[in-house]
Write a structure and sequence with these properties.
411 residues; alpha+beta; two-stranded antiparallel sheet; 14 helices; globular
Length: 411
């Protein structure tokens, strides 16, 4: 079975070797097994399924120890992955002659939910879920996602722990906003690069904007309609302004990618921010009884269409969460130690990076190709090669027991 799925195996192996990770040969084999398994597994992605999806014998206890005990540094793996990504991005831009590139850095948080009966897994806690409107038993992460050119890739993550848990463990507490600022501060940009940080209403604040300004980044962020705006230098809640002051003639119609909006815009103060572009918008038509979608932008040179188009890119981080959880099993881990869980997430980000780079290559020929399509294509190709292998072995009159053993369908 040495030639089975050779192209797929070699591309992942090449990807891992080019990262120049400080791993021993057995550690590298385990890492490759996890990457193969995560990408090829369909359905529930647990360690048994990952093992079954690889073409090499791996003892389950050895794979578990690799995550929870083996002496390797997940931070080094992440740093090498990000360095390789940045170099790849620079080379692609140089090849295309892109001298004024635009990069979108989106920030958000996500939950990995677990059953309430799961009590032995470390660092589980009740975290508020925006989608469910209540606190759920879960792990919480703040993540960054980068979109530039044809590349859309999950960038980095930080685990979030509630203040009470940090006090109990006598470790420093960092809020989600502080973790988001940390992800902004460590992002290494090129001098000629335009960076737009895209955030939802939970993360739009003066602290975040100041952190971005120190890096030379612009911010496009949503904000709640109860925030104080200052059109005509008159301080008023956005919701109150929209329902009592605005008139239909104050708004201009804007069409973005086929969708029409009614938009009111001004440049000036927003809460405790001195000078930004502020937009209040409604889909299709103005309705004073309906709260507006509120958006701000620190780059005052952008027109409303460009701002709305740029902010729409933030949706890529939400799509990334769906790919992580539905396709790659990001939240399906069953490890007890949080160290092992974070290492699993580190490998998940490696898998996502590999897939995103492969997707970017294919996009030159198939512009509409999504990352999910890329995963399904790989799985379909591998299944086809499995069938071809079984056919060739049958044609060569190999014993059925030997074929089944090679296919890991028989012990």
């Amino acid at each position: 079975m040495s030639n089975l799925m050779a192209a797929f195996h070699s591309s992942i192996t090449k990807f891992v070797f080019v990262l120049n990770l400080l791993l021993s040969k057995p550690q590298r084999r385990h890492l490759l097994a996890f990457l193969h398994g995560i990408i090829l597994c369909e359905g529930h992605v647990n360690i048994s399924q990952i093992r079954r999806s690889t073409s090499h014998d791996r003892d389950l206890s050895c794979m578990t120890r690799f995550l929870q005990e083996s002496p390797w540094c997940s931070k080094h793996v992440t740093n090498q992955r990000l360095s390789y990504l940045m170099e790849t991005i620079r080379q692609t831009r140089a090849t295309r002659g892109d001298t004024r590139p635009i990069t979108f850095l989106s920030l958000d948080d996500t939950l990995c939910k677990k059953e309430r009966s799961t009590v032995k897994m470390e660092r589980l806690d009740f975290h508020y879920s925006h989608s469910e409107g209540k606190s759920v038993w879960s792990h919480s992460l703040v993540t960054a996602h980068v979109v530039t050119g044809d590349l859309s890739v999950a960038w980095d993550f930080r685990s979030y722990f509630r203040k009470e848990d940090c006090i109990e463990r006598n470790i420093p507490f960092k809020s989600k906003n502080e973790l988001a600022i940390e992800l902004i501060e460590i992002y290494s940009s090129s001098p000629d690069e335009h960076i737009y940080v895209l955030i939802d209403s939970w993360y739009t604040s003066k602290k975040r904007i100041d952190a971005c300004a120190q890096k030379g980044f612009h911010v496009i962020g949503a904000f709640r309609s109860n925030r104080m705006i200052a059109p005509f230098r008159m301080k008023i809640k956005a919701s109150t302004f929209a329902s009592t002051v605005l008139r239909p003639t104050d708004l201009c119609p804007v069409t973005v990618d086929g969708q029409t909006y009614k938009v009111y815009a001004y440049e000036g103060p927003l809460s405790n921010m001195e000078n930004v572009r502020v937009f209040l918008s409604w889909e299709d038509k103005f309705d004073p009884k309906k709260p507006p979608f509120c958006l701000m932008c620190t780059d005052t040179s952008l027109d409303v269409v460009t701002v709305l188009r740029h902010y729409a890119v933030r949706w890529q981080i939400e799509v990334g969460y769906r790919y992580f959880k539905e396709l790659l099993g990001f939240d399906q881990y069953q490890y007890l130690s949080h160290k092992g869980i974070e290492r699993f997430w580190t490998i998940q980000f490696l898998a996502y990076t590999f897939l995103a780079l492969e997707q970017a290559k294919e996009k030159r020929h198939s512009p509409s190709l999504a990352l999910g399509d890329m995963v399904r294509r790989i799985r379909k190709d591998c299944l086809g090669q499995l069938i071809l292998y079984a056919y060739e072995q049958g044609w060569a009159q190999k014993p059925l027991a030997e074929v089944l053993k090679n296919l890991r369908l028989y012990s």
